[in-house]
């Protein structure tokens, strides 16, 4: 009986330690478009990695998330969407610096918030966290575009 309890305790400890080894992915979003369009693209991709990552969603517009946003090093000014893996939102992919803050590349023509990442970039980083950059770098935004079209 004692051996059985000991084995059950060891299995529980192993389960807890395995579960806690998951890297967190934090998704920051707004409740309205075009942020919601990004979520409809990102969620299916993240679902494929749910076994490896702990995925959490945070509404940018809720005051209760302000400290989390600040602690992540995200811009304190309003941003539409961000994907943070562990505590990193910047990666180096094929000799280019990619920041998972603001909209992805497929959201062409949405205005000043266009970012420089794609769903393929996100997939690559989820497959290989070694691509994550040592320091977080916010993208330089294109302030020229003012149209609201969405290219997918």
Topology, please?
Layout lengths: L1 H19 L2 E7 L5 H13 L5 E7 L6 H6 L9 E5 L4 E4 L2 E4 L19 H9 L25
Parallel strand pairs: 1-2
Antiparallel strand pairs: 1-3, 4-5
Protein architecture, described:
The chain contains four helices and five strands. It has 152 residues and is of the alpha+beta class. Strands 2-1-3 form a three-stranded mixed β-sheet, covered by helices on one side. The longest helix has 19 residues, at 2-20.
Q: What is the mean predicted local confidence, pLDDT?
A: 82
Main pleated-sheet profile? 3 strands, mixed
The sequence of SSEs as H and E is: HEHEHEEEH
- Our count of helices gives 4
User: In which order are the strands of the major sheet placed?
Assistant: 2-1-3
> In percent, how much strand structure appears in the residues?
15-25%
Short account of what is shown:
The chain is of the alpha+beta class.
Considering the chains and any ligands shown, give keywords for the structure.
single chain, 152 residues, alpha+beta, three-stranded mixed β-sheet, two-stranded antiparallel ribbon, globular
């Amino acid at each position: 009986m004692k051996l059985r309890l000991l084995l059950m305790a060891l299995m529980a400890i192993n389960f807890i330690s395995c579960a806690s080894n998951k890297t967190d992915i934090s998704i920051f979003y707004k409740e309205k478009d075009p942020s919601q369009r990004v979520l409809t693209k990102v969620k299916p991709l993240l679902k494929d990695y749910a076994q490896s990552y702990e995925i959490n969603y945070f509404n940018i517009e809720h005051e209760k998330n302000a400290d989390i946003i600040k602690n992540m090093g995200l811009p304190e000014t309003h941003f539409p969407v961000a994907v943070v893996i562990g505590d990193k939102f910047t990666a180096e992919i094929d000799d280019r610096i990619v920041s998972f803050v603001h909209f992805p590349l497929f959201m062409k023509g949405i205005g000043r918030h266009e970012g420089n990442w794609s769903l393929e970039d996100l997939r690559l980083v989820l497959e290989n966290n070694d691509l994550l950059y040592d320091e977080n770098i916010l993208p330089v935004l294109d302030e020229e575009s003012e149209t609201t079209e969405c290219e997918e």
